[in-house]
Specification:
266 residues, mainly alpha
Length: 266
């Protein structure tokens, strides 16, 4: 029995193959220093937040916010390249266009998230629609947010790394797992912050900034970990995981599928 060396999709990888993938993800997270990469993303994300507040009253603030956000996206792209074992080989203009496009996507996602969690519930509070309808609307909003997050992560894993584009099915697993882990981690972190006064006691007036920075770090860590999972799934099969016609191993212009991490049983 093979460990998934001939798997055409992640769903066809057997349990033994998933065990191989899990062990390699654990090793790669440590080897690629995902915590350090996530710290860089969190730092630039925090820098982007406060200029964004001033953007309400000044175009200059908007430009600064977008520049800071693009720096955070660039750090995230670097982290995803590390997760996929790729070196940045795109020209500067192409890299810049990809960075700006992904930055706009992430900003749009944040706006949608804030609208769904803050603006829409505030508006609905003034509408008498009954508890059952209100519950259905809230459930629909959260399902929409989860779906949007999964799609956004899939797009990020597909286009951010400097490599031949992977098929959607090879980016969706890390996106789904990343989304679920992110929701769980965010809820757990929010519970910890609300129930314990560690940050207030340790950082005083800066507690809010530190909490936000920690949440950015957790989020970036999970995103890069999702990329590690996708990368090791691609390394688990000898099938072509990139778009286009079937290509032989070594010709896919992608490090992981070109160097499988599993040996087929004979």
């Amino acid at each position: 029995m093979t460990h998934g060396a001939d798997a055409a999709t992640p769903a066809k990888i057997p349990f033994s193959g998933w065990k191989d993938v899990a062990l390699r993800v654990k090793n790669q997270v440590a080897k690629d220093r995902v915590g350090l990469l996530a710290a860089g993303v969190a730092f630039y994300g925090l820098l982007a937040l406060f200029p964004a507040i001033t953007a309400v009253i000044a175009i200059f603030g908007l430009l600064i916010a977008f520049y800071s956000a693009s720096k955070g996206t660039a750090s995230l792209i670097q982290g995803l390249n590390v997760a996929y074992s790729e070196d940045e080989s795109r020209g500067f203009i192409r890299w810049l266009l990809v960075t700006f496009a992904l930055t706009l996507m992430l900003i749009a996602g944040v706006i949608c998230g804030l609208t769904a969690t803050l603006a829409i519930p505030t508006i609905l509070a003034f509408v008498d629609m009954g508890s059952a309808v209100a519950m259905l609307v809230n459930a629909a909003l959260w399902l929409g947010l989860i779906s949007l997050t999964i799609v956004g992560l899939s797009v990020l894993y597909r286009f951010a790394p400097s490599r031949d584009t992977p098929e959607w099915q090879w980016t969706s697993v890390g996106a789904v797992v990343g989304c679920l882990v992110w929701i769980t981690a965010s809820a757990s972190f929010a519970f910890f912050v609300s129930k314990f006064s560690y940050y207030n006691q340790s950082f005083g007036a800066l507690a809010g900034v530190v909490v936000l920075l920690m949440w950015f770090w957790i989020s970036a860590y999970i995103i890069i970990m999702g990329a590690e999972l996708n990368a090791e799934l691609e390394a688990q099969t000898r099938a072509d995981t990139t778009v286009g016609g079937d290509k032989a191993i070594g010709t896919q212009d992608a490090e992981k599928p070109d160097h499988p991490g599993v040996e087929a049983d004979t």
